[in-house]
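Protein Entry — a single chain follows
Next Lines — sequence and tokenised fold
***
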Amino acid sequence: MFLLKVKERKLFGRKTDQLRKAGFIPAIIYGHGVKNQAVEAPYIAFDKIFQETGESGLIDLEIDDKKPIKVLVHDIDYHPLTQQIQHIDFYQIKAGEKISVEVEIKFVGVAPAVKELGGIFVPNLAKIEIECLPEDLVRELEVDISKLAAFGDSVRVSDIAAPQKIKILNDPAEVIATIEEPRAEEELKKMEEAPVEKPEEVKVEEKGKIEEEGEGKETMAGKTEKGG
């Protein structure tokens, strides 16, 4: 289990920038039937743990040396330019209460259609939504692709062999991955000969993107203050 020590937060609104400059992330804890709590988490410690848990791993959150509570990372706000974490939403877990989370898909095996026929493996889903008790939570679910032997073959949600205590919430018929035929040489040649944008046009688009990102910075700041 991963332990993260946090402190009760005293600063709100625009003052949360002081926390970020000091190496802390403003955060909020909420959950079903629990009182919201504003806390601050050390950036380096949280980032290290989050690399291991993602949004589907339980974290023991210790607030001001009190008895740890179990939480999931429910949402994270990132700065639109620097991608630094700006705010965290923790969801407090109650014992005996089922939770629904998205877990990663891990492809295992070798697809004969790729190895022997030169087919193109095309993934359609990266995560799958599950429901279970906190103690039965897993970080990922394996998907066997060794049965993909011909072009057009696919694996679906119904093909996942999930543990008995885990319920998959996605549509069973939803395609997880499929095999496509390799593109013909003539098609690839046409793509290579397609007209390229003029340098002037590219510069204009890049400038527009920067301006949009700048506007996004103000929007994100407002969202952070509201969340805090």
